[in-house]
Structures are given as C-alpha cells and as structure tokens.
Batch of 3 targets.
Target 1
Amino acid sequence: MSIQEEVLEEVLEQTVDQKNNEIVLYNDDVNTFDHVIDTLIYSCEHTPIQAEQCAFLVHFKGKCIVKTGIYEELVPRCSKLQEAGLSAEII
C-alpha cells in the first residue's frame, strides 16, 4: 500500500465518523418574513436568496432545515436563532 493510499483511507474514515446534525426552523405567527430572512443571513450565513427561500418553505411547509453540520458548530447558530425569537432546534 502506498503512502497516498494510506492518507486517503485515513481521510475517508474521518469523514464517515462525523455525524451531521441539522437546524430545523419552525413556522410561527409572530415573526415577519423580513425578520426571519435577516436572522438567517446573520445567524446561518445564508445569502439573501437562500434566506428568502427558507422563509417561504417555513411559512408554507411549517418547517425547514436551515443548516447542516456537526453539532458543536450548530449550537451557537441555533442559539442566535432562538435569541432572535425564532423557533429552532438541532436534530
């Protein structure tokens, strides 16, 4: 086995071991579209178009996955959403 194959194998193992979680944003009757969009841009680093699409999905479907990643990276983002008055959780 060559060194290149060994390194590639190690990288693949690390990638498989990390479980991705998701932040789910839920619909409510309190927050405006503009507030949701602005908060997604700030908290999740969405582009304005991504944030708008998520806001519409939340409105019409009741929920939307707004960010995927490892748990430790999602916690501060989810906290920012919640502090802004949005209903969100990590699953």
Note: Helices lie at 3-17, 33-44, 48-61, 71-83.
Target 2
Amino acid sequence: MALDFGFGFIAGVTGTIAGYPFDTVKVRLQTQTLHHRLYSGSLDCFIKIAKQESILGFYKGMSSPMFGVAVINGIVFSIQNLSKGLFDNPDTYLALVITGGIAGGVQAFICSPIELVKTRLQMQGIGQQRKLFTLSTHLYKGPIDCLKKSYTRQGFRYGIMRGLSVTLARDLPSFAAYFPAWQFFVSHFSPTGKEGDMSMHMSLIGGAFTGMAAWTVSYPFDVVKSRYQAARDHVYKNVWDCIIQSYRNEGWQVFTRGFLPCTLRAIPTNAFTYPVYAFLKRKFDTPFDDDNISIPTTVVTKSKSISTNGNSSSSIASIQSI
C-alpha cells in the first residue's frame, strides 16, 4: 500500500504538470466577466498567457494541487474500497455510483482548500510580463501565505474552507459518474471485459472518456466554485448569490465557460499519469499473491492484476480540477 501511494504520488505529479496549463486557461475563462473580458476564447487565452506571461504563466499556483493529488487519490481509493462493504455486489452500476459519490464527498474536504489556493494564485498577475511579475508585490507570496491570509481575514470556515459547499456539489456527482463510466468503457472495449487486458492506448482513451463524462455532469458547479473562490470577499454574500449574479449578468452560458480546455486537460493528464505509474509498478514493485491484494478494484470486473490497479489510480487524477 505504501509503494502504491508513492507511485501514485509521482504519477500524479507528472500528470498534473502535463495538464496544468489547460487548468489555468479554464480558471481564467471561468472567472472573467462580460464587463471585464480579457480573452475571447480558449485559443486566445493560451496565446495571451504565452506572450504576456511566458510559459511559466501557465503554472502559477501549481505546487498546491501537485502535492495534493497523492493525498486526494489515497483518500478516494480508501473510502471507495471501504464503501464496497455496504453492498453484496459492489460491481453493479448503482453500487459504483454510491461508493464513488461517498468517496468524492469525503475528499472534497481536502480538495476545497487546495483549490482555493490554486485558483487565487492562478489569478495573480494576469497579463503581466514574467519579469514585471517577479519584481511586483502581490497579495500572496505562495500557497502557505495564501492560506495564512485567508485565515486571518475570515477564519477557518469562511476563509480556508471558502467554497466547500459548492466543491461538494461538484465532486459528489463527478465521482458518482466516473466509476460507472469507467466500468462501462472497460466492459465494451476490453476483449475480455477486464481492465488488465486492455491495450495501453485503449486505457488512455478510456481515461479521457471517463474524465469527460465526470466533468459533463459536474462542470457548472466547477464554474461557480472558481468564481466564488477567486472573487474578493465582499463580491458575493454566499455561493447562491454567486449563482444568481452570474446568471443575471451573463446568462446560462456562463456555466459552460472554459469547458473545452477542461476536457482537453484529461488527455495529457491521463497520457502521462498512467504510463508513469505502470512503469514504476513494473520496475520497483514486487508481485503479490491474489489473496493479498487489497487495493480497490471496483472499476473493473473483479480483476486483481497489478496493471488493473494501476489504471484505476491513474483515472482519478484526471478528474481533479487541481
């Protein structure tokens, strides 16, 4: 279990680095308003960040979600595996929906402050050249400073945990959709109906498919979360006020803003996360007897192979907005 946690950490860091630029573009598009519109679309946002802020502009605030991926993945798999005991047959779609939702709800308490820090750091120095950004004084010096100032201004509940309710509203359906979508893909595209027998390229396609399915059902909540966490403390009274103001001022389209870079992020994230995890697993891990394997296997059809568990771990990293 300790080795899997370490492998998942390294693979999660790699996947985060690969997909993080898309996340920065997503957050920038989600948080801009009609009255202060800096980007006309995803491509325009990519070009302007590259020109104005250099390649490093895409990676603002990355340290917080990068090191949080391992903790979140560990929580999700542990809780989801524990929840299987509630069902006589944990591999049914209904069981996967419920256990995934439980796991997503628990991890949201860790994910919410991590994404608060990420979002606020991503919004610093928009359009500012890298040299000027380095020389300028910004509100937050880094992740720890952001947490400290958030706590000083509004305390733990309304400062550090700001946006927890909408993070729960996003992650409950997201994880509830993810596990059934993955099993659906495996059952239809694996030659034997087992994840371990799928080719590498099909596993990567499956990861992208399931990540997109999870985002599709939860994306509007992610938009609200980004806008609420990025806004100054006095802009919105609460999450519901954020929803009402966003809809009144910009229409329903505001809740789909940034969806393209969000879904595109699933492709490089999975393309890097799984191969790194599988390589480390083959290179350094020792084989286990079937009876000793305890890592969750709910997203497959009762397959207990080492490669099966590797696929499961990689898939979770792709759904996170961190």
Note: Residues 200-230 form the longest helix (31 residues).
Target 3
Amino acid sequence: MSDFLKNLRSTHRGAPPRPSGPTRKEIGDRYGLGSERRKMTDRRGPFPPQSQYKETDETTEYLPIIKESIATMAASLERMAENQESLIQAQIKQHESVGTFFENLNQILMDRVVPTLDAASQSKPIQKGTTSYASGTHHTKDEVIEIIRDMRKKRSTFAEIAQALMDKGIPTFSGRGDWHAQTIHRLCKES
C-alpha cells in the first residue's frame, strides 16, 4: 500500500498527521504573527472605521469645483434640450411645408391638366382592343392573337408560330426581344 493511503488511514483513525515540512511554530515570524493575535478593535467589522468618513482638507477644497462643474453640466443639458426641441419644431414645419406643396401641386394638376385630358379623351373615341401595342406596327394585339389561333387550328407547333411571327416582322407585345414557343403557349392558354 502506498504512503498516501497509509497516511490517510492514520488520519482517519484519529492519529495526528505527520507533517512533511516545518510547522508554523518552527518558522517563527517569517509568515505569521506567531503567538500574537489581533485584537478585536483591529479586526474588520461589518462597517468601515469612522475615520474614513471624515472630511479632509482636499475634499473641502474640491467641493466648490465639483459643485460648479455640476451646475455647468446642468446648464449645458438644458441648452441641449432646448436645441433639440427647436430642431423638432423645425422638422415639423418642414414636413408640413412639404405636405402643403404636394397638396397645391395636386390641386394645380386637377384644375389644369385633368380637364385637358378629359377633353382630349372625349374628342377621340377609344376603340376597345384595337389600339396598336407597339409604336410603328400595323398589327393590334387582337390581330396577333387571331393569327396565333388560326395557325393552331392548322396544327402548327408553338415554335413554328413563333418563327412565323418573327418572319412577318411582328414585334412582341412589349416591343423587346423575340417570340418564343413558351410565350405562344401562354397566350393560347389565356385566350
């Protein structure tokens, strides 16, 4: 059995442990106070000693400076609050001005532009579904859809219809790009 276990057994049975090095008594005053104990007045209590709360000359000297600094900070904070309030009031006025501008612009448009648009629309009758969908073409959207239906009745594929529309120079409804089989298929489903 190891020395550790023997030592553990001996301390367990009540035998005093054998010290492995010098004891405090042998060391003397190097690490501890020896036999001297602290007095009750030297021990720390729940409150610090009263001497720490006494005003010193330095505290009385700095108190007026501290009070002046606090008063300066309070005045600065008041000025900041006033500036913030005036900034908020300016932003409110700005938003009201923008709102008034758009209300006036709306009124001008309603008074001057809408009546001219109404007069223009009354002079030209709108033909339902026959207007040109792209500038410079002579084919309307209804005519293109009719061409697609006729070709589908003749058993043309979607790709053949797309190619035929491109060969005839008929632009797409957006006026950009080329005709594709998927577009023709979608148009046939919609109509």
Note: Residues 141-190 form one domain.
